[in-house]
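Hey all, quick one. A colleague (J.T.) asked me to put the 2-acetamido-2-deoxy-beta-D-glucopyranose job into the tracker so the inputs and the structure tokens live in one place instead of scattered across chat threads. No bug as far as I know, just bookkeeping. Sequence used:
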Amino acid sequence: MATSSWHRVLVLTLIFLLNCQQHSATPSKRIIYRFTDCTAEQLLHLPKLSAVFELSAVTCNITTLPNAYFTRFSALTVLELRESGLATIEDYALSGLDQLQWMSLAGNYITKVKPWAREPLKALNSLDLEGNAIRTLNGESFICYPNLHYLSLAANLLERISSDVFAYVPHLKHLNLAQNRLTVIGSSYFRGMQHLAHLALHHNAIERIEADSFESNAHLRSLRLDGNKLKDLEFLRNRALTRLLNLNLSHNQIETLDVFASSEWAVIDLDVSHNRLEELKGDTLKGLAGVVHLNLSGNALRLLATSCLDKLINLETIDLSANNLTQVPVGLFDAPTQLQRVNLSRNALPDIHATLFAQLPYLRLLDMSHNQLSSGAFIVHFSPLLPRSALTLDLSENHLTRLDTDAMDALHVCSERVELFGNWWHCEWLIVELVRAPAHFHFGRNYSLVASWSRALLNVSGIDCYDVERKRSIVVLDAGRLWEQRHTVNTAEQTTFLDPAMPTPPPLVWPRVRMDRFDSRSIIIWMLIAIGLAFTGLRILRQLIDRREQAKRLTKLREMKTKELVRLTTNQLTVHSDHR
Ligand SMILES: *[C@@H]1O[C@H](CO)[C@@H](O)[C@H](O)[C@H]1NC(C)=O
Ligand SMILES: *[C@@H]1O[C@H](CO)[C@@H](O)[C@H](O)[C@H]1NC(C)=O
Ligand SMILES: *[C@@H]1O[C@H](CO)[C@@H](O)[C@H](O)[C@H]1NC(C)=O
Ligand SMILES: *[C@@H]1O[C@H](CO)[C@@H](O)[C@H](O)[C@H]1NC(C)=O
Ligand SMILES: *[C@@H]1O[C@H](CO)[C@@H](O)[C@H](O)[C@H]1NC(C)=O
Ligand SMILES: *[C@@H]1O[C@H](CO)[C@@H](O)[C@H](O)[C@H]1NC(C)=O
Ligand SMILES: *[C@@H]1O[C@H](CO)[C@@H](O)[C@H](O)[C@H]1NC(C)=O
């Protein structure tokens, strides 16, 4: 079984090769072999080893790479041995790979990184050791790979790194140490790595980062520290880090951002979501004039100083969702006038000052869902420079009872999409507005209904509304569709129904709403609306049936045509061959 699949892969690859060679315009032929389910022994019996440019073996059985295994692969440039059970690499297994530039040994059982060659592999610039079982790195780990630019050791078992390991790879630009077990970053870990630009340390268990850890990394541009256990950011006080552009501190235990008040930062993208921030003072973010995307979601923010965003004149996105805000100070968004996306969802805001968003002509997305808003007065005060149909506004799951006529009019003009479901709408107001509302105003949400005339659970789009005595009702939006559902459920036994004879209307028994979704004590039945809608539904259904009939006829016609065509072509073919 294993051998046969091996042959299959081999054959496919050879075909691929022939194609490659035919299309290749370069004089030197590059042979590429890609295998799955092979063995180490089989790889050595490939033809033309010395011309192989790329070798890839995925999910093979290569537990051991013996010494001098690659000596005949003298032109090998790309090597991938992934998920192949590789556990032992003998000391000189990689000797002879002078041309090797890119190597991946990801997803194996390697426990130690060693030189694995007699002479340095000077051409190697990318090494991927992700998903192995590497516990430690020592001084000699990288001495044979002096020109690495990219190194990934993600998803291993590293707990600590002995000092100056990376001093042997001075040209490294990308280093990925994510998903390991690091708890402390020592000051010597990254010493001397002057070219390091991207460092990923996310999803470790880092609690502490020594003060001068990044002293010599003046070219660091992106730093990922999300998913660790950091409590403070004192390590950021190092001057070398002020030129960072992307900083991800999401999912830590950070309580204060004071460090950003002390100097000027270049950072563009700052993610501090899911930490323990409670307050932003006037100067907390003072040094972040360059920031474009700021994520403060999932903290415990209660207090925002009016001037806390004053210096952030380049801000385009701010996410303040899932915090504990009960108020947003007037003037908060007066300085960052470039803002395009504002998320204040999932707070506890009972109201919003009417002019809060008045200075934001570029606003395109405003999410105010899951708050306790009872007034939409701010809608009238959106910037007059807002283009038509530009704004997506989410006001769902609030305490709105009605929106004034001028607010509705303003929404008609400026919005592209408006979510309004899950509010406390007054029934009278709602009915009137439903008639006027354009299709991009979404009042309805989906309910599951149990009806006496259908065994299946029905889905229906409806709206909660309340009367003056605060009794809850439901307005069903599309009873016609409801009825359609009933019949699609039954089509198996009722095929004759598709006959375009006028179908009988459903009995007017109001469906029972499932108890977990709805308080049945207070159901007022909007019977008249339902009847009206049901008749509309019938009309639609009638049209639908007509259309289906027509479609059937068309298909039949098409089938006949195809048959005719086939007959004609076969005739012609026979005629043709007769001539020959
Ligand atoms: C892998 O190959 C070795 C011999 O080289 C063999 O003993 C082992 O059973 C093979 N493993 C699998 C999963 O085929
Ligand atoms: C920060 O990391 C989290 C995962 O931990 C990720 O979801 C988020 O997109 C990252 N933020 C940025 C700005 O890349
Ligand atoms: C902010 O972070 C949260 C959680 O990490 C994420 O779900 C959300 O998409 C981010 N917001 C933005 C605007 O990137
Ligand atoms: C706003 O934030 C909430 C909670 O973090 C999230 O579920 C929602 O998708 C965000 N809204 C937008 C428009 O990104
Ligand atoms: C934030 O609000 C949540 C629920 O709304 C509450 O459980 C939590 O205690 C609040 N946190 C603070 C710090 O007020
Ligand atoms: C209701 O369900 C329809 C599809 O059946 C979906 O397109 C729509 O987005 C849903 N509405 C809500 C508010 O979830
Ligand atoms: C009703 O909607 C739920 C999810 O909202 C879906 O799982 C179910 O299949 C739908 N039922 C019908 C009859 O469309």
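Adding what we noticed when we looked at it: The longest helix spans residues 527-579. Residues 28-181 form a domain with the Leucine-rich repeat, LRR (right-handed beta-alpha superhelix) fold (CATH 3.80.10.10).
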